[in-house]
Amino acid sequence: MLISTKGRYALRVLLDLAEHASEGYIPMKDVAARQEISLKYIEKIMPVLTKNRFVEGIHGKGGGYHLTKDPDRCTVWEILQAAEGDLAPVTCLLTDAEPCGRAAECRTLGMWEGFYGMMRDYFSSITLADLMKVETVNNYVI
């Protein structure tokens, strides 16, 4: 299971917007500079975040993006799913997977389901607000 640059950067962009929410609509060039992320890369991420209703934006002078949800209602799980797609660790657990003919006798299915559940529960327990407050989450430096 590997979280790509897209997922990591989506978290950083939303965290930056949350931290600067009082400034209104934030130009992505400002976020790019603060986060040291290419503006072109951010521009590829923003449509996904807009489509999934994490942000809304306006164009032109004074334009930019702002969060549409409170940071305490944006979980890391939701953000990563939006950016990465299905986070299932194996194909048979994908949301739209065909039923596996071996599922009844698969000795590893329960292990994969358990791992997926732990990952989902862990990332669902962390919000942008949590990331704004602390430098560690469950004793892990972030």
Describe this structure in words.
- The chain is mainly α and 142 residues long.
- It has one domain (5-137): Winged helix-like DNA-binding domain superfamily/Winged helix DNA-binding domain (Arc Repressor Mutant, subunit A), CATH 1.10.10.
- The protein is built from 6 helices and 4 strands.
- The protein has a two-stranded antiparallel sheet.
- A hairpin with a 5-residue loop joins strand 1 and strand 2.
- The longest helix has 16 residues, at 109-124.
- The radius of gyration is 17 Å and the shape is elongated.
Write the layout of secondary structure elements.
Elements: H1 5-19, H2 28-35, H3 39-51, E1 55-58, E2 64-67, H4 76-84, H5 109-124, H6 128-133, E3 136-137, E4 140-141
Antiparallel strand pairs: 1-2, 3-4
Helix pairs in contact: 1-2, 1-3, 1-4
| CATH first level | Mainly Alpha
Strand line-up of the largest beta sheet: 1-2
Main sheet, how many strands, which sense, barrel?
Answer: 2 strands, antiparallel
Q: Structural class per helix/strand content?
A: mainly alpha
CATH superfamily: Winged helix-like DNA-binding domain superfamily/Winged helix DNA-binding domain
Number of helices: 6
Amount of beta strand = 5-15%
Sketch the topology as an H/E string, one letter per element: HHHEEHHHEE
- Which residues sit in consecutive blocks of at least 5 with pLDDT less than 50? none
Give the number of DSSP strands: 4
Q: Span from first to last CA?
A: 18 Å
The tally of domains stands at 1
Architecture (CATH level 2) name: Orthogonal Bundle
CATH topology tier name: Arc Repressor Mutant, subunit A
The level of helicity is 40-55%
Mean pLDDT: 91
Gross morphology is elongated
Q: Mind telling me the C-alpha Rg? A: 17 Å
